[in-house]
Write a structure and sequence with these properties.
With 312 residues, the protein is of the alpha/beta class. It folds into two domains: 108 residues, NAD(P)-binding Rossmann-like Domain (Rossmann fold); 177 residues, NAD(P)-binding Rossmann-like Domain (Rossmann fold), CATH 3.40.50. 30% of the residues lie in helices and 17% in strands. The strands form two sheets. The chain has a seven-stranded parallel beta sheet with strand order 8-7-6-9-10-11-12. Helix 1 packs across helix 9 and helix 3 packs across helix 5. The chain is elongated.
Amino acid sequence: MKINDILLLMLPDDMQPLAFREELCVLDSTLRVVLDHEPYDPAEVGFIVGWKRPEDGWDKYPNLRAVHSFGAGVDQLLKGGGWPEALPLARVVDEKMAVQMSEYILTAVLLFKRHFLEYAHARGGWNWGDEWPLTGNRVGILGMGHLGQATAALLQKVGFEVHGWGRSEKVRGGFPCFCGRDGLGDFLRQSDYLVAILPNTPDTIGLLNRDRLQQLPSGAVLINVGRGAVLVEDDLLTLLDEGHLVGACLDVFQTEPLPSEHPFVNHPKVLVTPHVASLTPTGSVAPTILENYQRALQGRPLLNQVDPAVGY
């Protein structure tokens, strides 16, 4: 037994840490997996799986080899700055999560394209046989990482015209892509449905403000499943009320849980879901996280490693 081989789970109850511990121990019965509310010696912790930065920081764990996010994003772990130099950080990249995300986005796009929300609000107040005109067919995906590419493939398969936007010039997945701030305007002007799957980084905070959302075609729809800080919420409400945008599906928010009195909650053009677009499946992600635990103890590079300086 190594002196710093504890695998510490720093997860809230709604992320099912007990079930995740069971999944890990089925894969390797010799593991020392400890929940953060249980007694342990911080000096024996070699690997942390977490969601948020610990309140007392990382210095508490002098022999920590690596940290692994329990989700696709790492912003909550990096919050507050001061990431230890040379401490590896990894995130979840999982096919089941990609399926969840792409299904969610396809459902949202179709709900707006076929006006299901208007029919639901009308509650029978329509002329039989009437149909609202269909919204356009162009979907722009803001953020062409693993989840963005999976979503693009599904949307293209059912007949949507898909294009993406990314920070770099790298063409992803064979889809037309715009890049950088210079390409953002052209990307937005060609998006009847804007799907935001961006991480929370200094470059993305407030990216979707009034000026940029106004560059979408009149009658466009916003779907935000990345991070709430990317969107200036008041600017979205203004453009919805003015009629430039016809709807929004929002799964992430600046404040979570979303307060019951927030204007989004009862807005007729907004569909709110409680951060459920892509939940981490414990059984699916356990093998990769265990692999990274073993790599960390062996001093090997992690799978799906993140650059803390840029946040992804």
